Amino acid sequence: AQLVESGGGAVQPGGSLRLSCVASGFTDLDKYNIGWFRQAPGKEREGVSCIAMDKGTTYVADSVKGRFTISRDVTKNTVYLQMDSLKPEDTAVYYCAAVVGWTTPQAMEDMPEYEYDYWGQGTQVTVSS
Known about the structure:
Layout: E1 2-6, E2 9-11, E3 17-24, E4 32-39, E5 46-52, E6 58-60, E7 68-73, E8 78-83, E9 92-100, H1 105-110, E10 118-119, E11 123-127
Parallel strand pairs: 2-11
Antiparallel strand pairs: 1-3, 3-8, 4-5, 4-9, 5-6, 7-8, 9-10, 9-11
């Protein structure tokens, strides 16, 4: 099983990007939650958002709430992260990851990243004028 991210790039402050995470080789992908994480230079990796592939319930971190939206297309085994009103502090490598877990927003927020079983290679997002 693998995850492949795409959609990163360079954008000016206030701009938008849409990241994609394509999952392949999973048995029963609908049992998984797919999360987005990011890691800026010199900082720890942080959870950004998560979605349950079956129910579609979501979690969004306070740091990006109102600007980032997570969604999924189950026919394409793809999870999207729509990022609007981007700020320089959003600059980071963005990763998607998969875990079998509870599907409530609180459970997604509480899931430690070391529990995630599968990780993509990451995609760079740079927000700069």
